[in-house]
């Protein structure tokens, strides 16, 4: 057969621009794409059957490398199963290139098998859509990496026959010279020119400045601000080393007026904490600045945004002149209450998270935290992740794909890659372990409380008669059989004596630890803990 025209050239152009990893889902219509990728010689290719898991697996790789990762699938509903990962990548600003094989255009809408409307399949949740037959698809990597980074779709109609004859040799395409352009684009996207005169004037005149840091990669660039008396607060996902337990501090609403800033500056993306949003919405600063090279829309979760400064955090911090402030309101110490509480140990999740956070911080590790209660617990404990980098799918904050993202990211680090995940999120994404790419450095800690424990802590929800059956999603499954199927060492703990973290962390090969607790006891202990910090 003659190989479908242009596919070899497309694949090689992606490679020449620095794209060198592809997650390929089995199928027939995408066979030419699969062959072009696997026989090219320049791509690390992964074969993952479940498109939903595959999408998040690719997301995890892209998180670690910073380069676009290809997701490749067949026609029909396959591409739709990429949607949760594509949406997460869009809002978390992670570059992906989605290659969706398609039926020839004359068969669209003709009741032909595996045929749906694939143009602009992801709508506003993809940065761009390229029609392989009519558009210049070589621009896809540039678009994916331009700020804000994100996913792009290339839809590739393919006619039969698409299986090569035995002995078919893939011909090399002409060499493209686009790698330099890609690098230049990345550099320019974070170095927008800013006139700092106005911002320096406002910083000099404001006596109460508050800096908040949303989800960001590992960094310590905000340490210098603390020397100026400027409070810096961030969730664990900010990786900024903030030591202010803002979620607990703000539990006492009577002190909110004393904490109101004149100037608020936000770096990074989304914030986990609901209290910081409520605080700034009700005690608005005179000005609120968002520092971002090119944000999606005009995000204003605090409802007080006055300026968007189109540059990177590094450039802004280097470009402005900071002055000493004498604002100490945010330095209220609450560690004594925390220390006293955690000194009285019991077998509930808040105490177990405290112990596990302390243990992980002693390891050479990175952590991928699932949504719902998991990502909140790590903000509430006394123990903090300082040298441990924290990741979480907080673009859309869904439970789907949390484990798959961790498995993908584990491919790109020599550290222990630890997934902290609840039982519902684990069961929802257990196909993350249905592949042959489970590395030895993967560690999974499943908190099994028999359902979605977060709903027992939500005002209004916890008293509903429908809570048990329709909200908490009570379930009796364990992770043991899934671990065995994936050839992962299984550990289980139902009390403190059974919890052997040393054996778990030092296991030779991937390991899963399942911690069994009682959701009612968990909710009661967490309520007791939070009551310590209210007026």
UniProtKB/TrEMBL annotation:
Say which domain of life the source belongs to. Bacteria
**Pfam families from the UniProt entry:** TPP_enzyme_M_2, TPP_enzyme_N
Q: Which intervals hold domain Thiamine pyrophosphate enzyme N-terminal TPP-binding?
A: 10-114
Cofactor(s) the protein requires to work: thiamine diphosphate; Mg(2+); Mn(2+)
Pathway entry: Quinol/quinone metabolism; menaquinone biosynthesis; Quinol/quinone metabolism; 1,4-dihydroxy-2-naphthoate biosynthesis; 1,4-dihydroxy-2-naphthoate from chorismate: step 2/7
Which reactions are catalysed by this chain?
isochorismate + 2-oxoglutarate + H(+) = 5-enolpyruvoyl-6-hydroxy-2-succinyl-cyclohex-3-ene-1-carboxylate + CO2
Co-factor note (free text): Binds 1 thiamine pyrophosphate per subunit.
* EC number assigned by the record: 2.2.1.9
Coiled coil stretches, renumbered = none
Is Transferase among this UniProt entry's keywords? yes
Start and end residues of each Menaquinone biosynthesis protein MenD middle domain? 209-363
Alphabetical keyword list? Magnesium, Manganese, Menaquinone biosynthesis, Metal-binding, Thiamine pyrophosphate, Transferase
Give GO terms: molecular function aspect only. 2-succinyl-5-enolpyruvyl-6-hydroxy-3-cyclohexene-1-carboxylic-acid synthase activity
- What is known about what this protein does? Catalyzes the thiamine diphosphate-dependent decarboxylation of 2-oxoglutarate and the subsequent addition of the resulting succinic semialdehyde-thiamine pyrophosphate anion to isochorismate to yield 2-succinyl-5-enolpyruvyl-6-hydroxy-3-cyclohexene-1-carboxylate (SEPHCHC).
Q: Which family does it belong to?
A: Belongs to the TPP enzyme family. MenD subfamily.
* Complexes and interactors: Homodimer.
In Swiss-Prot or TrEMBL terms, this protein is called 2-succinyl-5-enolpyruvyl-6-hydroxy-3-cyclohexene-1-carboxylate synthase
Organism of this sequence: Aquirufa novilacunae
């Amino acid at each position: 057969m003659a190989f479908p025209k242009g596919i070899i050239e497309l694949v090689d152009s992606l490679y020449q621009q620095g794209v060198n990893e592809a997650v390929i889902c089995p199928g027939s219509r995408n066979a030419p794409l699969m062959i072009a990728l696997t026989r090219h010689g320049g791509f690390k290719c992964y074969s993952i059957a479940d498109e939903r898991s595959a999408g998040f697996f690719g997301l995890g790789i892209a998180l670690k490398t910073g380069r676009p990762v290809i997701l490749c699938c067949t026609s029909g509903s396959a591409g739709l199963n990429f949607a949760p990962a594509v949406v997460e990548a869009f809002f978390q600003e992670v570059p992906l290139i989605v290659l969706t094989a398609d039926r020839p255009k004359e068969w669209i809408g003709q009741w032909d098998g595996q045929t749906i409307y694939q143009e602009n399949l992801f709508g506003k949740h993809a940065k761009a859509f390229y029609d392989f037959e009519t558009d210049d698809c070589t621009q896809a990597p540039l678009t994916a990496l331009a700020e804000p980074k994100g996913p792009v779709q290339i839809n590739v109609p393919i006619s039969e026959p698409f299986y090569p004859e035995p002995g078919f040799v893939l011909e090399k395409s002409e060499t493209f010279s686009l790698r330099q352009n890609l690098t230049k684009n990345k550099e320019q996207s974070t170095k927008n020119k800013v006139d700092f005169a106005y911002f320096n004037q406002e910083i000099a005149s404001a006596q109460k400045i508050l800096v908040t840091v949303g989800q960001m990669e590992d960094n310590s660039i905000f340490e210098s601000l603390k020397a100026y008396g400027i409070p810096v607060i961030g969730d664990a996902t900010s990786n900024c080393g903030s030591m202010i337990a803002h979620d607990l501090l703000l539990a006492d609403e009577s002190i909110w007026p004393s904490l109101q800033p004149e100037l608020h500056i936000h770096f990074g993306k989304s914030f986990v904490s609901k209290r910081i949003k409520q605080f700034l919405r009700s005690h608005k600063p005179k000005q609120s600045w968002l520092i971002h090279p090119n944000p999606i829309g005009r995000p204003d979760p605090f409802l007080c945004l006055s300026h968007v400064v189109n540059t990177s955090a590094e450039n802004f911090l280097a470009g402005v002149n900071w002055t000493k402030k004498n604002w100490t309101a945010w330095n209220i110490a609450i560690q004594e209450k925390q220390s006293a509480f955690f000194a009285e140990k019991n077998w509930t999740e808040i105490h177990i998270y405290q112990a596990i956070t302390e243990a992980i911080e002693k390891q050479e590790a990175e952590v991928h935290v699932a949504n719902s209660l998991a990502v909140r617990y790590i903000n509430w404990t006394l123990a903090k992740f300082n040298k441990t980098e924290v990741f979480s799918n907080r673009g859309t904050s869904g439970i789907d794909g949390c484990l798959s993202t961790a498995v993908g990211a584990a491919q790109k680090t020599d550290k222990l890659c630890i997934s902290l995940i609840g039982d519902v999120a684990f069961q929802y994404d257990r196909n993350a372990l249905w592949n042959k790419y489970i590395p030895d450095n993967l560690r999974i800690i499943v908190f099994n409380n028999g359902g979605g424990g977060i709903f027992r802590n939500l005002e209004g929800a916890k008293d509903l008669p429908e809570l048990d059956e329709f909200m908490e999603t009570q379930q009796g499954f364990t992770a043991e059989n899934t671990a065995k199927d994936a050839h992962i060492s299984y550990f289980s703990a139902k009390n403190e004596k059974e919890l052997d973290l040393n054996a778990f962390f030092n296991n030779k090969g991937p390991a899963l630890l399942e911690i069994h607790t009682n959701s009612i006891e968990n909710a009661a202990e967490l309520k007791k803990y939070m009551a310590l910090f209210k007026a």
